[in-house]
Write a structure and sequence with these properties.
Pfam families: CSD. InterPro entries: Cold_shock_domain, CSD, CSP_DNA-bd, NA-bd_OB-fold. The chain has two helices and ten strands, in the order E-E-E-H-E-E-E-E-E-H-E-E. By secondary structure, the protein is mostly beta strands.
Length: 160
Amino acid sequence: MQEHGEVSPGGNSSVVATIKWFNVAKGFGFAVPDGQNRDAFLHASVLEAVGRTELPEGCRVVCDVVEGPRGLQITAIHDVDAEAAPVVGEVSQIEGTVKFFNNQKGFGFVIPDGGGRDIFIHARVIEGAGGEQLSAGQRVRMTVRHGARGPLAEGLDILP
């Protein structure tokens, strides 16, 4: 896929994004444009315009994104790279930033650097890494398994 620009306020901008999730029954989903830390809304009508009814989690798309009154929205899709979607059961090393971690509930989420769906992290993974508490904004490297319910951290290193 080719290089593309950034999201521009008020106008369409062609960018590369990673599908976070898409629910066929609800008719919508979300993607994360490269270089953004927020989601872009994706309506089923945009997929239908290119002859598709769904996109797998983790696949990469070249799309037009507009900044609207309710946030980022994908208005057109130009290219789909479904090969980029992680295979269920696949394990990979991913770096990211802690979105939040609730010590009382024993879980939290990490925003992956490469975009895509947030990664679930359980307290037992932190205990296995020395028991240090996680806080929002902290940088981590994780061993992640891509499961049917989404990415799950199985190992953790806290980065300086």
